[in-house]
Design a protein that fits this description.
Strand order of the largest sheet: 1-2-3-4-5
Number of helices: 5
Distance between the termini: 49 Å
Largest sheet: 5 strands, mixed
Order of helices and strands: EHHHEEEHEH
Helix content: 25-40%
Length: 152
């Protein structure tokens, strides 16, 4: 079984869109407002238009793309002088779940970030997404902050 984290290449954007659309559909019960705020076109523009500190990685297993991670590197937020890598989005296709792929992806990212000098790795989790909360807690992540939101 071969596992890897590899950058999403420009020619793979349509495949990423397809997987991202499945991810958003799966998240809808946990965040029903998101679809109202952001159209599919807006989401796709965000996928390819992120800043230089944004990174998209395929999660590969046995040579196939079975998921992705979207990372956002932050400095001085909220702890001055620290480098934080945030896992903004992470998705594993349903057929590849419960095989250790998610755990392997997170462990690989943690090892990489230790080498890159990151002080923290954070994972964004929607409040009502209990399966994700259980996963991240099992990976040793602890709740550090709660963010609130509303439409203006």
């Amino acid at each position: 079984m071969a596992f890897g984290l590899v950058p999403v290449e420009e020619g793979e954007i349509e495949a990423l869109f397809a997987m991202f659309d499945a991810y958003w559909t799966e998240l809808e019960p946990y965040d029903p407002v998101a679809r109202e705020i952001m159209s599919t076109a807006d989401r796709r523009a965000e996928l390819v238009g992120g800043g230089e500190d944004q990174e998209w990685l395929w999660i590969e297993f046995d040579g196939a793309h079975v998921g992705f991670m979207m990372l956002q590197l932050r400095y001085n937020d909220p702890l001055v002088g620290l480098q934080t890598q945030e896992i903004v989005d992470m998705y594993i296709e349903p057929d590849s779940r419960r095989h250790g792929v998610g755990k392997a992806a997170v462990e690989a990212l943690l090892a990489r970030e230790r080498q890159h000098g990151s002080t923290l790795v954070e994972a964004a989790v929607l409040r009502d997404n209990h399966p994700a909360q259980v996963f991240w807690e099992a990976m040793g992540f602890v709740t550090r902050a709660h963010r609130t939101a509303r439409q203006p």
